[in-house]
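Question thread 4412

I'm putting together a teaching handout and wanted feedback from people who do this every day. The idea is simple: show students a protein as raw sequence, then show them the structure tokens that encode its fold, then repeat with a second protein so they can compare. Below is the first pair exactly as I plan to print it.
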Amino acid sequence: MELKGIHHVSAITANTQENYRFYTEVLGMRLVKKTVNQDDTSMYHLFYADEIGNPGTDLTFFEIPRAGTTYPGHGSISATALRVPDDAALTYWQERFNEYNVEHDGISEQAGRKVIHFRDFEKQRLTLISDETNSGVPGGNVWELSPVPTDKGIIGLGPSKLTVPDAEPTIRVLTEVLSFQQVASYPSPVSGQPDILVFSTGEGGTGAEVHLEVREDLSRERPGRGSVHHVAFRVEDEAELAKWRDRLQEARLPNSGVVERFYFKSLYFREPNGILFELATDGPGFATDESPEHLGESLALPPYIEDQREEIEAKLQPVDTERSQ
């Protein structure tokens, strides 16, 4: 059994309308599903991705309107990377960020790859990472109606950075329970801190890595708007997900068991430093209840909560996701 890479990353926003504007108009991602958090249907759950929401391309957001400020710290997913095709694309993005007044740190190098670290309007910690030298998990395809050129656009999720106070328990879960192997390391940008460790699974590459940072000098993160809720890893199908459930039980890691999410099936657990991991199947995908041409245009509800539509819609603030083109 081997995980195939990053499946999706789910974060928190306090402002769905501005979130939609930033991720579609500035970053040029496609809203492939506008739905609700199935565990709390009073909040939106938005999925941004490539042209059809291929596994490994989804950055999702739960809306919590009263979410407070995030106070960064350990026990967190402290950065999310988004893949672009090559180094030349980063030059385009640097100019685009300047045009749209996006806070960024310019082009730099991280573990032998060109990157741009930047923040969204809620200080969500993000990184554009170049696939110039990538030979691992392939990326997705930029939507042809994106405001960003298809040869420059975001093609998927890159490495998730985990920040912990003690590396060993997390390393044991990554390598002994899950299918990751340490493949590299690189210097911490914070003076006096240990190197950041790179772990890879499946075909490897930018779409199949987690980067592990140790920060004993920090307190535990207080999450809020602009923080990450969980990272999900790719599993082929439900049969394999059941095997992962059994492995977690053998490792005495409490977990949710298999959960029906309609667009995929999931399993949730926390590693010893408290970070929430999800394992999610590649299918059936987002075109299950909407045509590929009209993904994300209206509120989609799985059939098992469709009978609650009127009640659910009454609790949600309307969000204009009508496309200009």
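The second pair follows. I'd like the answer to focus on this one:
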Amino acid sequence: MGQKIALCLASCGVLLGTMALADCPVGQEPFTSCQIEGRGTEVHVCFDSQVATYRYGSIGGVPDLVLSETVTHVDYEPWSGLGKAISETVTFYNGDFSYEVGGGFDRAFSEEEMELGPRRFGWIGVAQNGQSLSRLQCIPDTVSYGFGGGIHDIKVAAGLDWDDYSKTWVGDVVTQAPILFPDDKGGCLVAPEFMFGGVGMGDRVATLHKLGSPEASGVFLPDGREIDRVTAHGLGIDILNGLVIGMTATDKMWDMPSGLRVGLTRGEVIAILGRVPSGVAPDADIFNALVCSEAPQDFANWYAVIVFGPDKRVESISFVSLAP
């Protein structure tokens, strides 16, 4: 019976993968497709060796929305390997909105289940800024889903590995000694990392002349002092009393000495840090850590905040002085 189940599983994957072939652009293969319950619409996710595409619109009509992303960058989550159901998702982003397309089927564990054929399912999860707006269900009999190979194999061939710990893909990032110490050594981030493009926390304003001149920010501390600000491409630098007291990077051109930068996946950040910050889940939206410093607390008490966007990649990195 085990051989029969295995053969059924293999044939289901082939069957579900070939049904949507005609609905993909020439040269692309299907990941999943279906018609949406109660809407008269359909969705198709297709891919080739370079690009994955999302198309949604009226059945048989011109798509209302078409999105594309490189296969190496696309937010694809493979099957966990657990449970009766086999399913995978691909998520596309359009500004603040995201569209998670899932497809799958239940595995057969008995001859009776094999005779009934595969139970297919699928959905589209629509969200804005990571907050769910709706979940559209597929009509089961219209679901096509080709399990095995595909996007997964293309990512692996590109040198990416799936990290189930962080639920992200990890590329070939350079890792040396951990820069985030374990709890028994303070659980802090090493001080030399508080730097972007050669500019570090505590630097004097005179060192920033190539980035621009400080301007009044309109932000005041509780004691009435106003913070000055230098703004470069994707980098904001806060200045007080002629010293850098805060920095925020929102562009990948600004990296920390370790290579941490905007655009890295959560798994890549963990690999560089060497661990997840204390008290934070590996799939959290924010990582933060205090600086490792032997200086008096009223002189240098810096704090790093790494924010991940809905696509599980670094959206911003900020350094803040808690005692300006």
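Top answer:
Good format. For the second protein you could add a caption like this: Residues 183-321 form one domain. The two ends are 71 Å apart (CA to CA).
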